[in-house]
Design a protein that fits this description.
The protein has about 500 residues and is of the alpha/beta class. Helix content is about 35%, strand content about 20%. Strands 1, 2, 3, 4, 5, 6 and 7 form a seven-stranded mixed β-sheet that branches. The chain has a five-stranded mixed beta barrel with strand order 18-19-20-22-21. It has a three-stranded parallel β-sheet with strand order 8-11-14, with helices on both faces. Strand 18 and strand 19 form a beta hairpin. The radius of gyration is 23 Å and the shape is globular. Bound molecules: 5'-deoxyadenosine and iron/sulfur cluster. 5'-deoxyadenosine binds next to strand 16.
Length: about 500
Amino acid sequence: MTSRPEQDQETNGNTVSENSARPAAGGNTRKVFVRTYGCQMNVYDSERMTDVLGPEGFEATNTLEDADLVILNTCHIREKAAEKVYSELGRIRKVKEERAKSGKDMMVGVAGCVAQAEGEEISRRAPIVDLVVGPQSYHQLPGLLDKARSGEKVVETEFDIDAKFGHLSERAQTQVLKRAPSAFLTVQEGCDKFCTFCVVPYTRGAEVSRSVEQILSEAERMAAAGVREVTLLGQNVNAYHGEATDGSSWGLGRLLRRLSEIDGLDRLRYTTSHPRDMDDDLIDAHRDLKSLMPYLHLPVQSGSDKILKAMNRRHTRDDYFRLIDRIRDASPEIALSGDFIVGFPDETDRDFEDTMDLIRRVGYGSAFSFKYSQRPGTPGATMENQVPEEVKSARLAELQALVSAQQKTFNETRLGMVCDVLLEKKGRNEGQLVGKSPWLQPVQLDAPEALIGSIQAVEIVKIGSNSLFGQIIDRQNSHENPRPVTAAMA
Ligand code: 5AD
Ligand code: SF4
């Protein structure tokens, strides 16, 4: 499974975001503007790129016009990804020309999965691009930039993921930045599953897990920098099988158990998982670990056995139902989330109805849904009986109406409940903070800024369309149980 793809007409999945890393302190530095498309793994990678560039004298900026270096960290999961990058490059060219009038230069890099997939083609079609760098080569950025500065067009799309993580961690060790209370940590990258709709095995390469030691030291550094919640990332995160120092191989359940012992890391999450890799130990971890949040993103894509087979998902709908039962036995309060694709080749009304039936039976707290998009080079792209666009649109609308209703019902069951909320940042209005519930819902409440980074017992007093509203409960004087209260899904 991949993490969140780029959002367009479909669901609330993804973001396009500017530099999330904090700008470095003043000085005579150059500025880097990073625009991130796609999944959380790209968000993590963008932060690491900014980390790597810090010691090279770059500070992050959110203003394109100020940038000496622009990096587009791209996503290739669905339609027209490359075209969007080319049109963005067109806009950047104009800004670069404006800067040139006042004698300022601007270097342009394309990173991420479009860089990996398109390679040299990018600098051919968009001559303003100085540097094309695939996801496994970010640790080499300083050297690659030097090369590019000397006028050479640089294209680096080798797969050498071990080197990437080794170097990125090493660099990060020299950083003593205070981090936001919630952070991503990539533990696994790439995928060997080859679902027939998906480009990830081609753009991110074979599955590789980082070593236990590397992950623990990065997590410990995060905790020391004020991180309270870590989300472990991987395209197939529950296929994690990292090597420990004694040479043994650890699965994700074992890794989570060890991470839960780190002081200060009060909340653990992981995304995204494949149903086939939910082993007993991981399911048990949901029962055993207080810090493992009761939320699981477990994409199934379709509820039709015929389509699941054609997608090469290698499980049936009944396997999925049995799995969900086991997970709910272990963690009755868990909120489930999923990904769905409508209009995969040869999907009939009957197949689609099977998907709707699956959704009704499972009951999701949230879900992401997409129209099937033919990705060049994947088996699905050349399958017969491609589904017409208008049929896809109609099915998507129907499916989204169902999951929105489920999400609303789920959110409403939180009303009056007291739960732990991690306060993450300032809200839109003065005196307001935004935090996250155990079920990954945004919670808005009135609280002083000094409470950012703390976990508070909060009573949910109102349900909005996209977030919950709460009030902090004084734990000492409260008779309420500050641990999350179980609520059954509709
Ligand atoms: N078409 C539509 N959706 C896709 N996804 C991945 N590839 C495609 C595609 N070719 C969706 C899947 C996956 C999510 C990250 O993106 O649902 O789980
Ligand atoms: Fe996920 Fe399948 Fe794509 Fe692998 S091939 S990333 S399991 S959707």
